[in-house]
Amino acid sequence: MLAKRIIPCLDIRDGQTVKGIHFEELRRVGDPVELGAKYAAEGADELVYLDISATQEGRRTFTDLVTRIAARIDIPFTVGGGIASVDDAGRLLDAGADKVTVNSAAVRDPSLIDAIAAKYGSQFVVAAIDARTVDGRWVVTTHGGRRPTERELFTWAREAVDRGAGEILFTSMDHDGTKNGYPCETFARLAELPVPIIASGGAGTVDHIAEVLTAGRADAALAASIFHYNETPIPTLKQALRERGIPVRL
Amino acid sequence: MIAVVDYATGNLRSVANALHRAGAEFTLTADPALLRAADRVILPGVGEASSAMAKLRERELDGVIPTLTCPVLGICIGMQLMCLTSEEGDARCMGIFPTHVRRLRGGASEEGPLKVPHVGWDTIEGLRTPLFDGLHEGSFVYYVHSFAAETCPATIATTRYGESFSAALGRRNFYGVQFHPEKSGATGAAIIRNFLNLHP
After folding, report:
1. Residue-range domain boundaries for chain B
2. Of A1, A75, A122, which has the smallest distance from its Cβ to B122's Cβ?
3. What would the CATH number be for the domain defined by A5-243?
4. What is the nearest CA distance from A76 to chain B, expressed in angstroms?
5. In this predicted complex, what is the ipTM?
6. A7-53 per-position pLDDT tens digit
């Protein structure tokens, strides 16, 4: 039976792991390769590395890091952050990434999704979508949630899938970093799309993750701080999910 | 010598990395002479079946691979190309395994709607052959695919996703796995080790 996936997310700046609280106040939490290997050994089903470097230098460091991750880690990993062209995606594929996420650049130019999917396959493209509610409507945002766009969440998610995105990674900017749980109704609606949905932003407890995987019908849950600060170690989380009848890989 | 068939279907790095982690030396090659001289051959592959098959034909490897006598392991598309046909691009394949590759149907199941591609960790059952030595029924492996081989007498492991398909195939010296052992953690590493330790 297909397992629900638990995915630690590592934010990388200039080659180091950081975690943003509301994408601000970044704190260092360790060496990315070592931390990823630790999570893989503990039972993480996949890893996501997001490059939040602001400089060219930082980006080059990230590509080198991807090469080191690929050599060491024996589970799938996804990389993202600042991917703006097919060449960017190809560079990360060559470095050993299994998937890339596209976010702001795809909102700006949606054909980026078509182009990457056509060249490397849909399984390689994850559409990452950040959104927040404005007057009861889910508005897609870019640049780490700072810039609202004209796009509406469900319409954009559908378009991303139609253009070839193989998975959707949705972060509610209303919930990210709050540890108050996920917007499960919104996830359940996204789950009507024919591709896997990865839930991100808001996990504080085992119950939150269990809810988004059941009521929210998400295929995977992505989290950072509960793992980085060892509040809920992955084996504890997975055991608790199994006890709730949720299929997980143990 | 371990030969990894390099026929320009894209990323060989993950297989190469897995062999490095297993401590194995290998050569990336499309040279028929090197493949015939190898004591293990791995046929990886990502992408689309009919174009991958065309690339094998361009290199005349479609005639070479079925005649190899050492242990051969096809991974994902590599395994599919060892079947009779694939619905993906209506490809005629090498016919090593007596089965056909069909599109996963998806749709509804008792567990809820099934999405295609089948992405993530799923269980393998009915394990046969030394490829799975030391592994238990229900071990989890990592999948990313939209097409799968129907079960047949050469099926040596199955996975159920709506219906059962061949998670792995085995016939004489030929093996194939639909999942990605190179991305399947300790279970995948054990399968790769078992393949490297097979007696021809």
Report:
1. 2-197
2. A1
3. 3.20.20.70
4. 6
5. 0.91
6. 999 989 888 887 644 344 445 556 889 889 999 999 999 999 999 87
